[in-house]
């Protein structure tokens, strides 16, 4: 079990190859929703690790591992978030702020009410490994709701979101560091 949302099944995909200076273990790692071992919609492709005999341990992850992870977390609802009134009030986000940007909100809500944001992925995020980075494509939607005095909510507007980001990982001072770039 990885966490409350996902589990990983790692099993040998071939018999271990034992050589004098090393052992080669090919593991196939599949991530799936916790308690729900389902077949992945992806097909694992084999790959090879470049020979570097000066290292004690080589560890490689394929696109398949990340794709099944994305599928498992999407299925478990991990990409659905509600940003509650307390967080929005900390940043002072209310209907008055949105009313200054979107005139229809100003017409609807004369009194400034706190807001709640609901964000959700509408499709399984796509992860692609590249030479020096990887990209994540995510499709989603967001809904902005006014929190009324009686604690009910009223939808103000919804929007569709499509994001494509590149993430590069580097090691600096023995720490794994990442940089994120929004492509579109």
TrEMBL record:
Domain Lipid-binding serum glycoprotein C-terminal: 23-184
Gene name, Swiss-Prot/TrEMBL: Bpifc_0
Keywords for this protein: Antibiotic, Antimicrobial, Disulfide bond, Glycoprotein, Immunity, Innate immunity, Secreted, Signal
Pfam families the UniProt entry points to: LBP_BPI_CETP_C
The organism's place on the tree of life at top rank: Eukaryota
UniProt xrefs under PANTHER family: BACTERICIDAL PERMEABILITY-INCREASING BPI PROTEIN-RELATED, BPI FOLD-CONTAINING FAMILY C PROTEIN
KW Ligase (keyword) present: no
Protein's GO biological process: defense response to Gram-negative bacterium; innate immune response
Subcellular location: Secreted
Protein name: Bactericidal permeability-increasing protein
Species, as recorded: Callaeas wilsoni
One cellular component term from this protein's GO annotations in UniProt: extracellular space
Listed Gene3D superfamilies: Bactericidal permeability-increasing protein, domain 2
InterPro entries in UniProt: Bactericidal_perm-incr_a/b_dom, BPI/LBP/Plunc, Lipid-bd_serum_glycop_C
One Gene Ontology molecular-function label: lipid binding
Predominant location: secreted
Subunit comment: Monomer. Homodimer; disulfide-linked.
Free-text note regarding domains: The N-terminal region may be exposed to the interior of the granule, whereas the C-terminal portion may be embedded in the membrane. During phagocytosis and degranulation, proteases may be released and activated and cleave BPI at the junction of the N- and C-terminal portions of the molecule, providing controlled release of the N-terminal antibacterial fragment when bacteria are ingested.
Keyword Signal: yes
UniProt function note: The cytotoxic action of BPI is limited to many species of Gram-negative bacteria; this specificity may be explained by a strong affinity of the very basic N-terminal half for the negatively charged lipopolysaccharides that are unique to the Gram-negative bacterial outer envelope.
